[in-house]
Amino acid sequence: MISIIDYDAGNIKSVEKALQFLGAEAVVTRNPETILSSDGVILPGVGAFGDAMGRLRSYGLEEVLQDVTKRGIPFLGICLGLQLLFEDSEESPGVKGLGILKGHIRRIPSDGGLKVPQIGWNSLSFPKKGTLFEGIPEGSFVYFVHSYYLQAEDPGIVVATTEYGVTIHAAVEQGNVFAMQYQPEKSSDNGLAMLRNFVNLTRKDA
User: Fold this and answer.
1) Distance of alpha carbon 23 from alpha carbon 43, whole angstroms
2) For the whole model, what pTM was predicted?
3) In the chain, where the domains are located
4) Can you name the CATH fold of 2-205?
5) Given a cut of 80, is residue 183 above it in pLDDT?
6) Are 149 and 106 in contact (CB under 8 A)?
7) Most buried pick, 64, 76, 142, 162, via CB within 10 A?
8) Cis upstream peptide for 137 (omega within 30°)
9) Max CA separation in the chain (angstroms)
């Protein structure tokens, strides 16, 4: 079973539907026992960094998510869920993120003539091939909706990048922790293939 973290953030239902389409057993929950007994955990989300961290903390989920990563349970952050895994964000000065991974969330520069937020399809480059990109060709397009982007401290964890005024660290992988800035559940066959790879990973580890 895969737990989808329920912290009143957008985009949770679309992730649940994508997993169900792939034949995975998924539950939307904030129950610590359920989450920690799962075969995999997904933290999706659309919204503001500071508000989201406030909700995670008010529901007592910060410590639970730390435990998930320490126990080696496969963990996937999507969109805002990627950003929350890191230390802080220019969107919400003074608010600490989960700090599970090292790096900072920066605002996409608006002085290059590009629209911010970035909404639409962009292609991925693979500085190294990540576990969830098995069968995904270089240059595949995925769907982004964001105004902020990841600048990871360690480039060694970056498994996908894209260009939008700056080089965006679009996906990362470190141990059992995976994260994507784009929305795989809205990225057609390529995105579903990435989610299927995550589902298969949870079954392998179960």
Assistant:
1) 19
2) 0.95
3) 2-205
4) Rossmann fold (3.40.50)
5) yes
6) yes
7) 76
8) no
9) 48
